[in-house]
Specification:
It contains 16 helices and seven strands. The protein is an alpha+beta fold.
């Protein structure tokens, strides 16, 4: 029996005394009490009770068991590493083991991936690559209780407290909607969940019940995880059958002016051509693209990120992340063809 069935069983057994407002684990005796007397938590409980129909005594009992995690605060407060160049970033995600495991995952879930591709227009290899980059196909989905992570960051990390308070609200709402005990769900130190590492707001907006069992389980059910990734990409504008990037050649003194600052495409193909950028691919002159340079193992690489590239950056706002996903996807197709 998987963990979500266990959680649902718990919910059913306790629903008679929890009432309809929520389905939360109420221990006979609080074990943490880190947030029992917190004014911030009291304010949050009042908001959830007033605006979203939760029962305050059940939320108070829940937060009596929530633990403040110093390790989470240490992790999120750590000075950002100097961004690795592409030649060092790529080998983290493009490995023989990730490709081999991806081929296995694809084969194991071939029918589900084919259905997701048919229904949402997102290629199977892109879905597999996302799950491979995020959690090594479910091998590393996070070990923190999501409610601990989000509460710690909502109430004890002022720089991003509003964001994490919103995610905590979304998490409690999804726990109620899915009838699961929020104390049992695990994730990353930032509260990202399951095989595809959805934040709670993304879960509620984009996750789908792809196996039709009445519940959405992205923690232990690859079918729902696959459908949810495909749903996310479609909702963010994925164009079926279109490429992701185009390799560019550059010449002249205005090349640097073509480089995109940030991720949003601000120039189209024609404007970049005027600045010395060219591609062997046939691209619509009016197409907006993200133009970027990477420091590759063989020297500078110039690329045009097409609309589907921009969609991948909506999942994780990083040019190198999107390139890693795209190249892993291509390698998965190649490796699968050889087996």
């Amino acid at each position: 029996m998987n963990s979500m069935h266990i959680l649902r069983g718990w919910a059913v057994r306790h629903a008679h005394w929890l009432g309809l407002a929520s389905v939360f684990g109420l221990a006979q005796q609080a074990v943490a009490a880190d947030y029992t007397n917190s004014p911030q938590v009291a304010e949050f409980v009042a908001e959830m009770t007033r605006d979203y129909g939760f029962a305050s005594e059940q939320l108070v009992s829940l937060f009596a068991e929530v633990e403040r995690k110093q390790a989470i605060l240490d992790a999120i407060s750590r000075p950002a590493e100097k961004v690795k160049p592409w030649k060092d970033y790529r080998p983290i995600f493009i490995t023989d083991s990730r490709i081999a495991r991806g081929v296995d995952f694809w084969r194991e879930h071939e029918q589900t991936l084919a259905r997701a591709e048919q229904e949402y227009g997102v290629p199977a290899e892109v879905i597999v690559a996302i799950i491979g980059v995020e959690t090594f196909y479910g091998g590393n989905t996070g070990s923190y209780r999501v409610v601990d992570a989000l509460s710690t960051l909502a109430f004890d990390y002022p720089p991003r407290a509003p964001f994490f308070r919103k995610e905590l609200r979304e998490f409690l709402m999804l726990s109620r909607e899915e009838q699961v005990d929020p104390l049992n769900l695990k994730g990353s130190y930032a509260g990202a969940m399951g095989l595809p590492q959805f934040m709670p707001s993304s879960f509620r907006a984009y996750a789908v019940d792809f196996d039709g069992d009445g519940h959405i389980n992205i923690w232990t059910n690859p079918v729902d995880a696959i459908g949810s990734v495909a749903s996310y990409f479609k909702r963010h504008g994925w164009l079926p059958g279109e490429p992701v990037v185009s390799a560019a050649s550059v010449s002249g003194e205005q090349v640097e002016q073509g480089l995109t600052q940030g991720l949003d495409p601000v120039k189209n193909v024609a404007e970049l051509r005027a600045l010395g950028w060219s591609s062997k691919d046939s691209l619509d002159a009016e197409m907006p693209v993200t133009a970027f340079r990477l420091e590759g193992a063989e020297g500078a690489e110039y690329w045009l990120g097409l609309p589907n590239f921009f969609v991948i950056t909506r999942y994780n706002r990083s040019v190198m992340y999107a390139m890693a996903v795209n190249q892993l996807a291509e390698l998965l197709v190649d490796a699968r063809g050889q087996h």
